[in-house]
Amino acid sequence: MWKIEKPILPELVQEAIRVGYRHFDCACDYGNESQVGEGLQAAMKAGLCNREDLWVTSKLWNTYHATEHVGPAVQKSLDDLQLDYLDLYLIHFPIASKFVPFEHRYPPEWFYDPDAEFPKIEIDPVPIRETWEAMEALVAQGLVKNIGICNFNCSLIRDLLSYAKIRPSVLQVELHPRLTQEKLLKYCKQEAISVTGFSPLGAESYYSIGMASPEQSLLNNSSIIQIASSHNKTPAQIILRWGVQRGTAIVPKTSSSERLRENFEIFDFNLNDEEMAAISKLNLNQRYNDPGHFCEVAFNTFFPIYE
Fold it and tell me: Which of 57, 65, 276, 278 has its CA at 20 to 30 Å from residue 111's CA atom?
């Protein structure tokens, strides 16, 4: 649901369900959960699906990491989505920032005070352990079925596992052929943590926000074009199939009904070992969504999390 405009969302959600989608990846920070909720409710009322058919994910934003804010944050998402529970609730970033009340600004985004003379991210030193224990309480209360993490590296996961009473079900991270993250995937498999890849097509997700340029597109890569031709598929379908065939979930974003159908039509073919290896060899460890870069450029705050 990232970067999808509010007016088109209710109908787009319904169209996705008609096509066959059942997983909806949402977040407080996307600023459109109310519209997603409208679409989900309309689809259920129309008999397109039941609640138990759906898997709805949302994410705890950085400003709500303290114990007393985790419960109200998930309840706000539930109210907006018009749901009684979430299938999965993730810590969006291993970044805790100063609390912004709902009535003051929602979603709070990155700046603590956008109108300040020198606006920046105001860090709040909340331990991940405190946040995780509050997330575990949500499971006990029946508000969420599963809990997990986003944008965590191996060391942070290893530390979390040392005290977690409920282990993370899912890690969501940036994954595409330019950022294959082989060691991270191997570690998560070892620890029985499922992995979801965001931005599975790579650079395309970042053109509109100035974090990538069209010449970085994988859709024009000769190897991928050749593989696509041999399967009578589009380059995008080849990349998405590669992501699924690696054993990860993927969450491609689109605002187009046509693309919804194209992205979904990846389950009627397989890539062979040579094709999978050729795509994986495109890896450059190229991370587009990196707080160590964009927080300083856009939010006047240097905040690396991967180094």
Answer: 57
- Is 306 labeled as catalytic in the residue annotation? no
Q: Single out the catalytic residue among 30, 64, 112, 288.
A: 30
Q: Which region, left, alpha or beta, applies to residue 63 given φ > 0 means left and ψ of -120 to 50 means alpha?
A: alpha
Q: How confident is the model at residue 177, as a pLDDT?
A: 98
Token pair 């994410």 in the structure block, residue: 59
Token pair for residue 259?
Answer: 């693309």
pLDDT, residue 31, reads 97
* Beta carbons of 244 and 238 less than 8 angstroms apart: no
Instruction: Answer yes or no: is pLDDT of 127 > 90.
Output: yes
pLDDT of 215 above 90: no
pLDDT in tens, 2-30: 999 999 999 999 999 999 999 999 999 99
